[in-house]
Amino acid sequence: MNKVAIVMGSTSDWPTMQNAAKMLREMGVEFEAKVVSAHRTPDRLTEFAVTAAEQGFDVIIAGAGGAAHLPGMIAAHTHLPVLGCPVRSSQLSGMDSLLSIVQMPKGVAVGTLAIGDAGAANAGLLAAQIIALHDDTVRQNIINFRAAQTEKVLASADLELP
Ligand code: RP5
């Protein structure tokens, strides 16, 4: 069974990161969610990231806000693909989170998504798309999801606006 890890810096990130969980559930991808803080629990971060592949994870989604070093530090410890989700912060609306995650040095990659709910949902979708390369059921779920989404937009595209 394929497994995605959703990790976040704090329980306060869950309202955002639950969007990734919801998308993975919809695509039929097994996942685990956990709180791992780069700054508050650095040893837990290292232990998780170093053992993630042997634990059976295929993809890691990491969300954090503010000085959002979690995705980059996880990527530093594993060869697994890491998708970074900038969580909206109270002080700088997530621009701090985005810039902390996106500006990785050459040689250690984090795939950075958009700030907030849409980015987290798309992290779930992208993780499912990676899993779908080797999983026919997930691939079909993604194709069906995309087709239904297109149908829904087309059905509302010709509304007579006042
Ligand atoms: C980061 O600090 C977390 O990812 C969270 O977005 C932010 C605030 O954390 P809390 O103070 O709400 O626990 O590490």
Query: What is the approximate shape?
Result: globular
Secondary-structure element pattern, one letter each: EHEHEHEHEHH
Task: Estimate the mean pLDDT confidence.
Answer: 96
Secondary structure class reads: alpha/beta
Major sheet attributes: 5 strands, parallel
Please state the second-level CATH architecture.
3-Layer(aba) Sandwich
CATH class: Alpha Beta
CATH topology: Rossmann fold
**Reading side by side through the largest sheet, how are the strands ordered?**
2-1-3-4-5
Which small molecules are bound? 5-O-phosphono-beta-D-ribofuranose
Q: Please, how many domains?
A: 1
User: Any idea what the radius of gyration is?
Assistant: 16 Å
Share of β-strand residues: 15-25%
Helix content: 40-55%
Compute the number of helices. 6
Question: What keyword list fits this structure?
Answer:
single chain; 162 residues; alpha/beta; Rossmann fold; five-stranded parallel β-sheet; globular; binds 5-O-phosphono-beta-D-ribofuranose
Structure description:
Strands 2-1-3-4-5 form a five-stranded parallel sheet, sandwiched between helices. The protein is built from six helices and five strands; from the N terminus they run βαβαβαβαβαα. The chain is globular, with a radius of gyration of 16 Å. The longest helix has 21 residues, at 136-156. It has helices at 14-27, 42-51, 70-77, 95-102, 117-132, 136-156, and strands at 3-8, 30-35, 59-65, 82-87, 111-112. The N and C termini lie far apart (51 Å). It has one domain: Rossmann fold, CATH 3.40.50.1970. The mean pLDDT is 96. α1 (14-27) links the parallel β1 (3-8) and β2. The chain is an alpha/beta fold and 162 residues long. The structure holds 5-O-phosphono-beta-D-ribofuranose (RP5). Residues 8-10, 12-13, 37, 64-66, 87 line the site of 5-O-phosphono-beta-D-ribofuranose. Catalyzes the conversion of N5-carboxyaminoimidazole ribonucleotide (N5-CAIR) to 4-carboxy-5-aminoimidazole ribonucleotide (CAIR).
